[in-house]
Amino acid sequence: VIYCFTVHFNNLFLVYCLILGLSFYSFAYFLFSQVKEPIVNCFNEKIPVKTVGGYLFAISCLFYILWLSEIIPAIIREVTPESIMEIGTPTNPIQVLDLSVCLPALLITSILLFGKNPLGLLLAPAMMVFCILMDITIGELVVVMGMKGLNVDWSLTIIMGLFALVSAIVLTQFLRSLQTGHNRRTVGARFFDHQTKPR
């Protein structure tokens, strides 16, 4: 979305549009596929929901603090944040997408996982992959900016690399709880039935 709407027109414009379209329709197809074969039927009873949910919750809070620490003081002083002045756009598109879509998605998924809601199981792997790609992208961006001679904080690359590594480890633990074979529907059904029973 950012590359399609805020980057100056260049010879990769159609590539950006293609990636955006594929991302949107792939995710729509993924959600539609769950109608036929719910992902809750593919997990065993030892799902690390607290670990994954806690990690997603921590990541979302961390980035909320990061963005709001710049936005709120600027609003109070009635000035434009320096980061927006540097990129020359009316607002920071990364902040817009994070505050409006991405971070709430991480928070909602973590809350669903804490409650062992089947929807949380469906969204958790996608949210974890998003975190990995986001961390790698930020770290790589710093490297590219440094190679272009810009003044950058190289420690950010190390931090993002560590976040990507931790995210990959947490995702691996989550995916290890996937069931294979004839008993996966039975295990998933017991999990789902347990969550839907009246309390």
Q: Would you mind describing this structure in some detail?
A:
By secondary structure, the protein is an all-alpha fold. It contains eight helices and no strands. The radius of gyration is 20 Å and the shape is globular. It starts with a helix and ends with a helix. About 6% of the residues have low confidence.
Q: Outline the low-pLDDT stretches.
A: 181-192
Overall shape: it is globular
The percent range for helix content is over 70%
Largest sheet: none
Query: Would you tell me the structural class of the helices and strands?
Result: mainly alpha
Keywords:
199 residues, globular, single chain, 8 helices, mainly alpha, 73% helix
List the helices and strands and how they pair.
Layout lengths: L1 H4 L7 H21 L15 H29 L4 H6 L5 H22 L3 H30 L7 H21 L8 H13 L3
Brief rundown of the structure:
The protein is mainly α and 199 residues long. The chain has eight helices and no strands.
